[in-house]
Amino acid sequence: MSNLNHTRTHYSVIVVGGGQAGLSVSYYLKQLKLDHLVFEKNSLMHGWKAERWDSFTLVTPNWQCNLPGHPYDGDDPKGFMTRDETIAYLNTFASKLNAPVREGVAVNKVETDANGVYHVSTSDGDYTADQVVVASGGYHIPVIPRMAERLPESVFQMHSAQYKSAAQLPEGAVLVVGSGQSGAQIAEDLHLAGRKVFLATGDAPRVSRFYRGKDVVEWLDDMGYYKISVNEHPLGKNVRNNTNHYVTGRDGGRDIDLRKFAQEGMELYGLMTDYDGEYLVFLPNLTQNLDKADATLNNINARIDAWIEQQGIETEEGPSVYTPSWTPEQERTQLNLAESGITSILWCIGFRPDFGWLDAAVFNGQGHPKHDRGVTNQPGLYFIGLPWLHTWGSGRFTSVGQDAEHLSEHIAAYQRRVKATSEEAVPA
Questions:
Q1: Which interval of the chain is the signal sequence (predicted)?
Q2: H-helix or E-strand spanning residue 410
Q3: Rounded Cα distance, 332 and 286, in Å
Q4: Exposed/middle/buried for 238, CB within 10 Å: 0-12, 13-18, 19+?
Q5: How far apart are CA 208 and CA 217, in angstroms?
Q6: Rounded distance, CA 369 to CA 147, Å?
Q7: Which residues contact 192 (CB under 8 A, 6 or more apart)?
Q8: How far is Cα 108 from Cα 122, in angstroms, rounded to an integer?
């Protein structure tokens, strides 16, 4: 990687964010010989180093790791890289690329002047650019509900972004709030560590890890699912609001079955809505949440069955439908906090975006940017690395490079127009 000194202040392109998305853009800008600078307020790949727990693994198989010029080349393509292996993969990518990066420099403000030039105010001075690429992702502010303020000080609280292992938490039971991808995996991690776990579920769907002899990801890839654009998806752009399916790559990969955890002693509840000073309060929707997750799993498997039949594929396993191994005897809507033995609460309910530093009329009412495959309606402003920017893989290692290449072509075309306009303005 290349950490540059502050020797110039204007660039054709400034990229905000030094993760895999920002560096993928840099890869193609270097190929196009476009001068640019990448700002990263922490260190390269900071999110992967700081916000992943010790037992974390990718939930997508290694063969899907295909950053520009850096496909996975290890000896376990159908396996799932651990946290440390993922960081090593990303560090190698950064080293090979040697991007023009300023690490430890925060972007505080981006705005445009009357001529459409971008003014970028940073913690290390002011810069200008013809174009700006926002590659800082969409997961900025950890979501912790206001009810957390009313919980007793004796209860330790932490967001999933801070979690590393059960050893961080005081002795006693743990309440995990949220059953999305992080919540389900962290609940499993604590469960396997021997902790008493209470899990407040949500409406996250789940998916089989393996089905009919192959990883479900392989089947979906064969079926062309990962090539479907957001504009072609049945849900359209609403698919961007979907919660990720919970599954794990741990120990070679397996399903996450919350019903199985319940049989082993984990206590499951519906959506947590309040704390009244004595009781934690939940909606009576645990059964609904579990049934909905299982229905999604069965629906995906049924689509795979149809594909197998349509293509005449021979497999050793026949179609199967998941049937519940455990169902709640009753819906419990209250839990006495003091009597439960809960000493820690882990909030696994996601993040919200924070683009307050970007002065541009490109955001919807929820603070999310409006764009067409990363291209906004403001000339010279782009986004990359967001979920379903274009396809399912846009926010993942599998397709972020394709999005980067697409944006770089737009950037190059725009830069040619900037140059032509500048030359026309110069008197003969």
A1: none
A2: helix 400-425
A3: 9
A4: exposed
A5: 9
A6: 29
A7: none
A8: 5
Contact present, 272 and 200 (Cβ < 8 Å): yes
Tell which residue, 378, 398, 359, has the closest CA to residue 388: 398
Question: Amino acid identity of 135?
Answer: A
Chain-centroid distance of CA 103 in Å reads 22
Q: In angstroms, what CA-CA distances link 144 with 53, 169, 205?
A: 19, 18, 22
Tell me how far apart the alpha carbons of residues 68 and 339 are, in angstroms, rounded to a whole number: 54
| Angle at alpha carbon of residue 347, lines to 291 and 322, rounded to 5° | 20
Q: List the alpha helices (DSSP H) in 258-370.
A: 258-263, 286-311, 337-340
**173-177 vs 118-122, strand pairing mode:** unpaired
- Residue 133: pLDDT band (50, 70, 90) is very high
Query: How far apart are alpha carbons 249 and 65 in whole angstroms?
Result: 14
Cβ contact 330:324 at 8 Å: no
- Cα(371)–Cα(360) distance, rounded to whole angstroms? 12
What residues does each domain of the chain span?
A: 2-140+353-425, 142-347
- pLDDT tens readout for residues 89-110: 999 999 999 999 999 999 999 9
Report the CATH superfamily, name and number, of domain 2-140+353-425.
FAD/NAD(P)-binding domain (3.50.50.60)
Q: Output Rg (C-alpha) for the chain, integer angstroms.
A: 24
Long-range contacts of 257-262, Cβ-Cβ distance < 8 Å, separation of 24 or more: 257/206, 257/325, 258/179, 258/184, 258/199, 258/201, 258/290, 258/293, 259/290, 259/324, 259/325, 259/326, 259/327, 260/325, 260/326, 261/187, 261/188, 261/191, 261/197, 261/199, 262/326, 262/328
Residue 267, token pair as written in the block: 């206590």
**CATH code given to domain 142-347:** 3.50.50.60
Amino acid (1-letter code) at residue 180: G
- CA–CA distance from 391 to each of 6, 103, 239, 387 (Å)? 37, 29, 10, 8
Q: Are 390 and 230 in contact (CB under 8 A)?
A: yes
Q: What is the mean pLDDT of residues 33-42?
A: 97
Residue 352: pLDDT band (50, 70, 90) is confident
How many Å apart are CA 162 and CA 273, to the nearest integer? 23
